Amino acid sequence: MPKVLSEEQIKHYRENGYLGQMDGIAPTEARAMLADLTAFTETHGISAGQLQMKGHLCFRRSYELTFNDRILDVVEDLIGPNLMAFASRFWIKGARDKSFVSWHQDSAYFGLEPHELVTVWLAITDATPEMGCMKVIPGSHRGKSYTHEETFAENNLLARGQVIHGVRNDDAVYLPLKQGQFSCHHERILHASDPNETEVDRIGLAVFFIPTHVKSTIGRRTAYLVRGVDDFGHWDKDPVPQSRLDTGVIEHVRAAGERYIDPKYRQEADLSEKR
């Protein structure tokens, strides 16, 4: 019996690979996270959006968000009661800054097996099509993996500028969100986002959740239990931020993202499935 989703919503996710526009946090909480982001930049001289994989560990507030019952109830309805927070990233597009995200599948570089990860994309600001909200190709998660070219393009926000060529934008569905809302998508769905054409910043936090039975295919890594029990022990534990801005975990966060930038690291979970 689902906790919060209807059978129709669960069927939609199974068939299409995404759900959109669900209430996550209050706008006041989202604005507080914006203040944390500003404080982080002032303290460290870089944007949290430059941290590739575990940005939420830099803030006590965003770490606590991973235990949010409203969000976890949805994730549990999709992938079960035993859940781990694997990673996250702040997606930050400044006003008219030309940054974009090319068509890709997360499964091509997360190095997980089986492919059951759910991404929760939380809108820290509004995210409209004009602001470069996420867009997806419905049902594309049910096909095989695609070949990604690593372009390292300057304005591509992906770590290696990974891109799948030949995707028809006419088939895309846009997922606009109001501040505090979230969407969910399957790690194998084709998704992307356009540049921000407005005069205001567009900021979101993507948190990647996995069932506890999912393994890393590229060496032992870290995650942590957010709900249920872990009877498998596939993951070492991430450090816990102890303060609003915990400088003690920054090196852990930086190290976790290095393999996603350095091309010497293999990322594909199953090269035989590429097409």
Structure description:
This protein has one domain: Jelly Rolls (Sandwich). It contains six helices and 15 strands. It has helices at residues 7-16, 27-44, 60-65, 69-79, 107-110, 250-258, and strands spanning 18-23, 83-93, 101-104, 112-113, 118-123, 134-136, 149-150, 162-163, 173-174, 181-186, 191-193, 202-211, 215-216, 222-227, 236-237. Residues 267-275 have low confidence and may be disordered.
Physical arrangement of strands within the biggest beta sheet: 1-10-5-12-2-14-15
- Low-confidence parts: 267-275
What would you call the shape? Answer: globular
* Largest β sheet strand count, sense and barrel closure: 7 strands, mixed
Structure described in brief:
The protein has 275 residues and is of the alpha+beta class. It is built from 6 helices and 15 strands.
